[in-house]
Amino acid sequence: MKTQKCIICGKSIGEEEEYIECCDCNSRMHKGCFDGELLTDANGNPLCPICASTEALDWLDELIASYTTVYKRDPRGENIKSRLQNLLKILEGKA
Ligand SMILES: [Zn+2]
Ligand SMILES: [Zn+2]
Q: What is the pTM of this model?
């Protein structure tokens, strides 16, 4: 088995170290880096941060597309927009 790097911390996973494997893309994560609360699919299977975010966005895409008019009518729709803009800033390293 070749050495693999942990997708979360970027360091290699040693032969004797315990790891968790993403059920979608098979990326590995140190057991200590993995957050079982945050990084699971609906069935409780482990996901890496990329696959977990992709699943969450798939869900959000569908939610927002289905109820577009509600976001426009309800003043809280503005909060949703600013939170999404904040996420973008974090991903772009501007926050
Ligand atoms: Zn790690
Ligand atoms: Zn993954």
A: 0.87
Backbone angles phi, psi at 65, to 5 degrees: -65, -35
CATH label of the domain that carries residue 78: 3.30.40.10
Q: How many CB atoms lie within 10 A of CB 64?
A: 14
Residue 79 domain boundaries = 4-91
What's the 8 CA to ligand 1 centre distance in angstroms?
Answer: 5
How remote is the CA of residue 48 from the centroid of ligand 2, in Å?
Answer: 4
- Which ligand has the minimum distance to the alpha carbon of residue 34? 1
**Digits of tens for pLDDT over the chain (95 positions)?**
567 899 999 999 999 999 999 999 999 999 999 999 999 999 999 999 999 999 999 999 999 999 999 999 999 999 999 999 999 999 999 87
Q: Could you tell me how far CA 91 lies from the centroid of its own chain?
A: 12
Looking at the structure of the chain, the number of domains it has is: 1
